[in-house]
Design brief:
The structure is a homodimer. By secondary structure, chain A is an alpha+beta fold. Among the domains of chain A are: about 25-155, Uridine Diphospho-n-acetylenolpyruvylglucosamine Reductase, domain 2, CATH 3.30.43.10; about 280-390, Alpha-Beta Plaits, CATH 3.30.70. Chain A has helices spanning about 25-30, 60-65, 75-80, 85-90, 110-120, 180-185, 205-210, 215-220, 225, 255, 290-305, 315-325, 330-340, 360-375, 385-390, 395-405, 420-440, 470-490, 510-525, and strands at about 70, 100-105, 125-130, 150-155, 160-165, 170-175, 190, 225-235, 235-240, 265-275, 275, 280-290, 310-315, 350-355, 380, 405-415, 445-450, 455-465. In chain A, helix 2 packs antiparallel against helix 5 (about 110-120), helix 11 (about 290-305) crosses helix 14 and helix 17 (about 420-440) packs antiparallel against helix 18 (about 470-490). Chains A and B meet through strand 9, helix 10, helix 14, strand 16 and strand 18 of A and strand 9, helix 10, helix 14, strand 16 and strand 18 of B.
């Protein structure tokens, strides 16, 4: 069952060789006050502390009659946390609590209904678990006031159920992960085009439940823009919204499914918009004199409807670190020389990409290029695009390597209007700097813009600092809270695509107001009267 | 206050000259069995039957302390109905019941809060009223079990409150009507680009509350795609969702505002995406050998991302009637000759339009054209486009003229996937034919496709038949029900952009399921515990 499961203490296949940082990272580590020679390895699986599985009497047997039930050490530890910095710090240190009392693998929606019925009756909390890639505590098996907690693994629902090439939609099982989705659709000449950084493990159900955005979502649309139908199984009933165009039949309930985070129900399958598999993928680097110029260029391509499908612009700090990490190869030396010549030294690099037919990509590339040049953009050719695509899923592996070196490494993200984007960027970066400097671990804060909308764009921050040993959790909690407060003060959303989970629940009310919270509570009470679904997530103050 | 109000018994300004049908309509009338010389005029205003205003003791005074209150005959009749065929038949016959006990004009959101407080306390139903253009009974002043009913006219909230040219959003008062929106935005070089057929009277609040689609929404997006923020005032609280990009902060509650139809709260202002006012508007006619070819062409432009901003394709019947109504002018004769020559005689005509900068329109026109030609589309030049634009808001006036002639004239609309579009078209047209033929009033049923999505498209039907005198309501109710049943059987949405209101409430459960209904009821109970807001609308079984 867990053959292709990620490593319990980090990212990637359990049996993959441990990755190490490139030698070019040494100056960065030293700059953070970290000794590049030192290692802080995770404990062994056998050393992870776990409570005894403690489901109420008879529940395990009842569940086992309808579904696979696992309560061995590996299964429980694999479902004990997601992949946030908090999660990894905890697991690497050998703290497996909380872990689920059991992991239940459901084969289809009818089984999910049965499992919810059994758990509602027995007072057992249920935490839906897709790919387990949440970085906001979304799959942490909190039991709230219940007598037990199971992790409901949706990996058994991993099939392409239907595809309609004429209307460009596909029905996908909730447990299907990114690569399986593309394999199955690819056989029919289709693509979902949804490539979050967690793509290797992210599941369809998880994507929909968390309103995931992929790296090329500027062009393909976020998952919530691709949802045409959802089957949501809740303790009180089933909300089955079949393929629908946009319509005027009252409030759009698919938009309650998307972002429901396992709190309102279990998404068992989703009907998503797909596209013909692109014949051409053209990715390239561009340089801009400054972050400000690059943002203006991105605003213009987006508002003039000629945006690339993928558009990410690193700020000055991220550009400098990326160039330094790329090392001193001949091509990079040539690039540095070229940028100095063009007076872009100290500027910002963007990766932009177009996907589609040759005709379509050619046309759109020309249209984008004309606008990007208006803000003194300089094309850097295909090589930066090739390198970026090659490394597009590497960050979680690199984070493990950084953790091995005793480096705090985490990301957070937000979005706002173009009007407030610079203000928000500076406020969040400043808050992170100040908070971590106060711990005497001054950070490196990197940022990129990576999802464009007519009204605004997202900001994605990466934070690196020396770990404050023994105080890892408190150190990051202070900084994360400072960043969240800055986001709320400066008109950002508390999350552009990581979702709310456990870690953002306290900030949601500031974003949607008390009436928004009571509306979500009302929906929860209607669909899950006993409150067994994913306690402590999304809604504040539910433990 | 009502200076610019529509004629109480029909469409248009009260003092506008009565329009008559063109002479070319005579054969059509005769074909329906209608004598073109006969007239059935509406009664005079003084002859309209009204119940005495009957608000509970003291309520009128309390309301008058915070808002304007009108209970004269004109005010009450103007708010006694929307503009559906049912509404007009009733009013023209002199039946003003139900009418509101009073019309309350609110100046701002704070006044709305006060009005809701007073009415909740007094047990008086409140029907929000924007432009009064609902064609599904959405503004009918039903009182349910309450002791009175007021129509809450939002016309006093008619200002542009803010505009952000950089992020392309504007904050608009709920009572602003189409022309005022475009005037105010136009002064800043902006446009909303939202032009429903009811544009002259449709209000911002009404558009959002009903998920309105405009004629150019294929390009500009429906109103629910343009909503960036909504301020909704409900008896239990205020849901104020400020400007937001797409995000992952839980379910998207703006999607509960959109389509809430005055049942969940009163929309007092909306933040909508706007665009730079287009320098170029290029509209033209195209001909296709058949409806099927035209639909294939539309599917291709949409799925290949080169759709015009406006795209409407008439089926064979609508094309034939439009050409006949256009009459025997020299240009039309030349067109007929040309189409015969090209073997498109008996084919279908489409109107397509592009708006934007000269560069943008030129580029997109070329891309669309290449695809339209692939399905044997033939451009007919600018003249059909000019004629269509000139008459784009005429249909409601023409309907009044048809009613004067004793013709049943109504529209209904749906949408589905491309895969089921033909099946749905034939099923609905067939159901309308059969139902009206059974009344011995065989109809003419016209249809066009007018909103394109990657997954599917809308179908907009126009029905014309001889009125069955004395049985007008029953005659249409049978036919409308047959059409709705056909829609549900063949995978259509019960409404693509007319909304649910009173007339579609019984069909909503078939679309969103019992769980969907209970979710909406839960939201209603939370926001409007006393249930005073717009009884009998949206949710089935509430009278």
């Amino acid at each position: 069952m867990w053959d292709d499961a990620p490593c319990w203490s980090g990212w990637g296949p359990a049996d993959a060789p441990i990755r190490s940082l490139p030698e070019t990272a040494a100056p960065l580590l030293r700059g953070l006050g970290v000794d590049p020679e030192r290692r802080r390895a995770p404990v062994e699986l056998d050393a992870v502390r776990l409570a005894e599985p403690g489901l109420p009497e008879g529940v395990r047997d009842r569940l086992a009659r309808v579904a696979q039930v696992h309560d061995d050490r590996l299964a429980r530890v694999l479902h004990a946390a997601g992949k946030s910095y908090f999660d990894l710090v905890r697991l690497r240190a050998g703290d497996g609590i909380p872990a689920p009392d059991a992991v239940v693998v459901a084969a289809d929606g009818a089984v999910v209904e049965e499992v919810l019925r059994i758990c509602t009756g027995a007072g057992v909390a249920v935490v839906p678990f897709g790919g387990g890639t949440s970085v906001v505590g979304g799959v942490e098996p909190l039991r709230g006031d219940f007598g037990g907690v199971v992790s409901l693994d949706l990996g058994g629902m991993g099939a392409l159920l239907d595809a309609d090439e004429r209307s460009l939609v596909a029905v996908l099982g909730a447990g299907m992960r990114g690569p399986a989705v593309e394999r199955a659709l690819g056989e029919r000449g289709l693509t979902l085009g949804h490539f979050p950084q967690s793509w290797e493990y992210a599941s369809v159900g998880g994507m929909v439940a968390t309103r995931s955005a992929g790296q090329a979502s500027t062009g393909y649309g976020r998952i919530d823009e691709l949802v045409r139908g959802v089957d949501l199984v809740a303790p009180a009933g089933r909300l089955d919204l079949a393929v629908r165009t946009r319509n005027a039949a009252g409030p759009e309930l698919r938009e309650l499914d998307a972002g429901s985070e396992g709190v309102l129900g279990v998404i068992t399958q989703a009907t998503l918009a797909v596209r013909p598999r692109p014949a051409v993928r053209r990715y390239e680097g561009w340089s801009f004199p400054s972050f400000r110029d690059g943002i203006e260029a991105f605003r213009a391509v987006e508002q003039e409807h000629v945006a690339p499908d993928l558009a990410r612009l690193s700020d000055e700090a991220e550009t400098a670190v990326n160039l330094a990490m790329a090392g001193g190869g001949r091509a990079e030396q040539a690039l540095g020389w070229y940028l100095r010549l063009r007076r872009h030294k100290g500027g910002c690099v963007a990766i932009v990409g177009w996907e589609g037919t040759e005709l379509d990509v050619g046309r759109r590339h020309a249209a984008s290029e004309a606008v990007l040049r208006r803000w003194d953009g300089i094309p850097l050719g295909a090589r930066p695009g090739v390198l970026w695509r090659r490394g597009r899923y590497d960050a979680p592996y690199l984070r493990d390597a950084l953790l091995d070196h005793g480096v705090l490494a985490e990301t957070l993200e937000t979005a706002t209007s173009w009007t407030r984007l610079h203000e928000l960027h500076d406020a969040v970066a400043g808050a992170l700097h100040d908070a971590l400097a106060a711990h005497e671990t001054p950070p490196v804060v990197l940022c990129h813009v990576s999802h464009l909308y007519p009204v605004g764009a997202s900001l994605y921050f990466t934070v690196l600092a020396r770990q404050q040993e023994g105080e890892e959790v408190g150190q990051w909690r202070t900084a994360k809270d400072a960043a969240c407060q800055a986001i709320l003060r400066h008109g950002g959303t508390i999350t552009h695509h990581h979702a709310i989970g456990r870690d953002h629940a306290a900030y949601l009310e500031a974003e949607i107001g008390p009436t928004g919270i009571t509306l979500l509570r009302a929906a929860k009470a209607e669909l899950d009267p006993a409150g067994i679904l994913n306690p402590g997530k999304l809604l504040p103050g539910v433990s």
